[in-house]
């Protein structure tokens, strides 16, 4: 059940607030009045009473784009309940200061504040999934992290706030006057450990609040350790009214030490004028004990961390990647393991304790940490392993089946295989009756572990599960045991007697797992004589030893390549494969090779790669991949636009409402990527964008051909064109002022980069793009989704076009609906 809550507020005395002295998280008294302050400023107002409205509307897992409040804002039908109460019911905060009741888990909470003047303030919220401020969407705090600080301008008079879905059944909210217009916040630092004997500077990140209406550029951050060392870095730009987590460098220590240091972080402008400074603790440790390291992600140039349980002793070691469960930090995951004498254990973060369920950007984080661990510790390549617990158990199944040639063995603990069929919401049965849902389901196929489980044929598997687990039912892995028993020659299965979901560190640090790992190695390509490779898309998984899928016939449908080597003959059977590549060189065969593919024979030289392409039902060798078409390094799927050091480009043309909306939408997406993925994305105006300056980077455009100047640079010849009156798809035209679109296309000036589009026609259309469920694990987004604003209320019946571009990025395979 969903509930909409509406709260009316009382204005605090602005004269009293003006007397507040900001000293941190304290309460100060002036006369008889109590003034509450936070580290970022003084509290102007706590929201305390209001109204709520029940609702029965369900959402779904792969598709959850419905929101009646968003629809009301989009079509201009929202009415402040203080003016028209209707079915709204009164509610007040509880003794803990929260709007708290079980219905809040699926609620909307509306708050109202009557401001005596216009001023820039911060909204601090805990517990809500998203927040609307005067109709503009912002990220909330649905995991109760306590990170949310949203700079915004209070209007003189009534200001409206809506918080959606209190995940834990409670929402708290207050307005804060910032102590400075530009300042640090200590909330949510990403810091490495200072490592004894390592002379390189380490990456770190800190959030800067820009409570101004100006872009902040040419900022410099210096960090000074209490031991005296200093590092300086010219950091990232920050758009107006935004809190960005920006990079800086931590200096290396000259002398060995174990314990806590103090680090002073100073923010300056390019002239050296100090804007703000803070002091924070940082740990200095030996590289021989558990510690934290950082790196810069290729997704968005943000700083991410991982934790290490380093191997004991010197010499070449194995590498074990460990992936944590929901709400667990990587540092706690690593410390659940005692150090081994034969292997380094590295724990990735999934970008957040909840993150992306190890799919989407969580998957990329795991791969980036795996690469960092191999590089830093110079591990033995053939001795690489994977394990994880709970959500990380799912991550182990998912990563292990998706990347079968990267791990010698995997060990899922307290695990479930497919997240879309696990949990209280079994997916999207309510959507299955609509044709538009078919492409949404397909675009999420990469997470269907049971459909690609045969990829594990070359890898060892050890399954550990408590037989009394009340969180993840034992039935989840008993099913996997039965599936593996039909084909797998090398797996172990153990149910821990009486074990609940967590029964101590041996829930993951289980001695038999590591003994099993020791007996497994990744074979070389030439040792692999048979491959049975399954994948949903080469955008996620393209390679299994010496085979690489470059192009599918039907995007995001499952593909299968079964290949066997018998002397100089390679026999291949394929399903849903248009182009594949064979690394014949790595097989160390001699002379000419016969390749029998689907009962057709071609000849290939053994001293180079063989690229086989299907055209008009005939297979033949081609010399190279046509990178203007879909291929492994650039596929569709709208979510894949949010990768490759992506930059958001918002429109500055059009009406005042268009300019305000598209800037805020880009800001909202950046806020969400920060909150859910510890991200830090460059957000710029269309006036700042140039092809050369942002060369080979993914771009997401906010706006259409009528108002975004970057459109003509990137999408002049796009098969989809959008202006304020219509959407043109190939030779078909959809007219209306309430059409919205998400789609992705290749950058014509790059072999790898992509362009994503978030756009609408006129005001209703552009506001229909409000939801950013594409920045979420699991959800399904095909190449193209074009819909009417009424989709926010009625769901998939209002989807007008969906599906996937053809391999040449044409529109002929898109689905035109009703």
Automatic annotation (TrEMBL):
It holds the Pfam family Peptidase_S9. Residues 363-517 form the Peptidase S9 prolyl oligopeptidase catalytic domain. Keywords: Signal. InterPro entries: AB_hydrolase_fold, Peptidase_S9_cat, Plant_Biomass_Hydrol_Est. Residues 1-20 form the signal peptide. This is Pimeloyl-ACP methyl ester carboxylesterase. It comes from Flavobacterium granuli. The lineage of its organism: Bacteria, Pseudomonadati, Bacteroidota, Flavobacteriia, Flavobacteriales.
